[in-house]
Input
Amino acid sequence: MRRNGRVLLLAGLFYAPLVSADWQINLIEGATEISRSVYNLHMVIFYICVAIAVVVFGVMFWSIFWHRKSRGAKAAHFHESTWVEIAWTIVPVIILVSMAVPASTTLIQMYDKNNAELDIQITGYQWKWRYQYLNQDIDFFSSLATPQEQIINEQIKGDNYLLEVDKPLVIPAGKKVRFLLTSNDVIHSWWVPALAVKKDAIPGFVNESWTLVDEPGIYRGQCAELCGRDHGFMPIVVEVKSPEDYQLWVAEQANLKVAEQQSAQKEWSQAELMIRGEEVYKASCAACHQFEGQGIPGIFPALAGSPLMSGDSAEHVDAVLHGRSGTAMQAFAEQLNTVDLAAVITYERNAWGNQGGAVTVQQITELLKE
Amino acid sequence: MGSLEQTVHSTDHHGPAKGITRWLYTTNHKDIGTLYLLFSLTMFFVGGCMALTIRAELFQPGLQLIMPEFFNQMTTMHGLIMVFGAVMPAFVGLANWMIPMMVGSPDMALPRMNNWSFWILPFAFVMMLSTLLMEGGAPNFGWTFYAPLSTTYAPPSVTYFIFAVHMMGISSIMGAINVIATILNMRAPGMKLMDMPLFVWTWLITAFLLIAVMPVLAGVVTMMLMDIHFGTSFFDAAGGGDPVLFQHVFWFFGHPEVYIMILPAFGIVSEIIPTFARKRLFGYTSMVYATGSIAILSFIVWAHHMFTVGLPLAGELFFMYTTMLIAVPTGVKVFNWVATMFRGSMTFETPMLFSLAFVVLFTIGGFSGLMLAIAPADFQYHDTYFVVAHFHYVLVPGSIFSIMAAAYYWLPKWTGHMYNEAMGKLHFWLSFIGVNITFFPMHFLGLAGMPRRIPDYALQFADFNMVATFGAFLFGFSQLIFVYNVISCARSGKKATARVWEGSHGLEWTLPSPPPYHSFTEPPVFTNPHRENS
Output
């Protein structure tokens, strides 16, 4: 097993760069009218810079080549020419104005947030995104789906390594969608290159942005603002569906909700809760408290051997449900359903040598009703 | 009157003290300059090791060497150490060495304060580095330390970081006061402001920038301290504050800070290019005015670092236009250097090679800066490796190459020996190649969508990251050649003449190499050869 792991590791080291070689060197045009005009703007500025560089460096290298002492060049004595100096001040100003005009036009277009057909609130959490469809009963979290084993080089990395999530944001094609961005903890930044949308999610404030994607497809992005330990591990996936498929997806969400409520009615044994709890723990808790519950000294407390895990369950449940204010501990009552809450608390209380006993789904349901 | 004469007399026999006290108690501008430069070199290697740790982890996708929490500490400490420990002290060291010799004075105006401003620094940095050993680790919120990641969510060591920043700020402000006092009061008779060498001019303007913005930095870290320990809510929306306020205050310091790290570099290059082109600087006056304009503009562009925080449209447009405007005086500078070279009689000693590379590579950094100024395009570039490429192009082959150029240019003056030219050229070419292999691919990575400050990345970014890591190690290890060259030059080498370079110009070259312990005990009579009415 260990040997296998090593072989895989070695294979992974050399395999990954070779197959994925695509040496992309430029922006993508993207999937929206805005992203295409940003791309055009980018190319225009780039070519202007190249042209200026050719002229300036041309003169410079001409001088370096021809006006060197080793070729017998004698230094001229000219200096200060008002006309030349006025020219090389005015010409750049004209070039800048010609760049500012299309840039301003695109910017004004980007700031036109009117007439959106769908509003979605996006909330950044350390380290996942929450999508709430306003005026609809759709509300879910979206977090990294890449398994830990791939990150620590024990498995071969998949094609969408670090750019895959458990539940993508789903939006309809051909409709203007408005995003309302905020954050639950630190500043995050929601960025999908193909949509040319990058907007900071700031705790306590709401930012607006929008997109209108023409074609169905899957578009990937990442958090762009340093937000703590797992900043590199909170990707964004946007699935754009045709309006018909989008309606089907909306209906499906309602069915899932019903199924979830039914599963909370069922009797869950401690063994079942432990299995489910481990999955939930890996997805929602391990980033801070670590996979073996050991925490990170001085930053994130250890759960293995913690008195909180073996003492009275009420305090433990309260911490998980409502978080700890002033710390990075989030309130999970809004993030996880009742079964997952019971499962993960049970798991924490009985894994890694902890002996705290089970917490039932009913107990959690009662507490959440209060 | 009698006592004054006595002082003057006693200084005649007064050379450097013996042993360690020479360095601890020194009030001599050259000794303090040397201390600053050695300190800066040390910090350059400490910060460089952190950079290589970062690049080693990014050599391949996946987590191999370090964990994300340590990676974040490395990016943060690398940035802070390079900005406050390597680049800024190097320029202060050069100012200490050169300004008194260039304006024809015996020493800096405030020698005891000079001693104090240096000796604060080692303590500040020992304290900052000690956070690496603390529980919870060193600061991990990036060198820009955005709240609330740096307040509510920070490791306990943040308080030590705040205190260290305060100490660095005090040191910088005192250094700046000293520079201004020296330049305004101690110039040789006959030297008007418009006769001063450009290095002196750019430092005068830089010193005013420092005095203007270091208190703002002190203010912002104090607000953090209050939020963390004394229950205020400057940056906490839950208490009525605003996290974006932090960014406004920080960048009101931060953008002029960027020019603090580049204006002296402009001055150095404006000294070196005329020397080796054997032709006077094309437009002295326009260079002075361009420097002044850049300094003034630096106060009204700060929010271009914040295009994605949700500024109103009018704000975005204002900051986009003012930022683009900076290209004009910067262009004037580049055109001036090129016009100085045109129809000169050029030779290519190591300082000139570093200066030429500065002009080309700094201009590339300027171009990417112009692209970043375009707000709608910045939504794609912001916080990606394109930004990392941009500011490393202006800081490494910009500021740091200018410091290397200055070191080679003035080393013969400082030590009295010529450095090894072949080794200098080898150092240059390896650094030049290394820098470009490291930072040029980062433009591509950013455009392809790689965010900055991530310890692991998607597979499509693998190739260029591998290339960049090779370049970083090449660049890093090449710097050992510089250390060897400096040490051997200090110890021995061909005797340097007073003028050192065929095309050298200015008062510092009228002193012997090495110069006497007290530079100009008699004020020299200065006449500007270029001024018509003199």
Remarks:
- The radius of gyration of chain B is 23 Å.
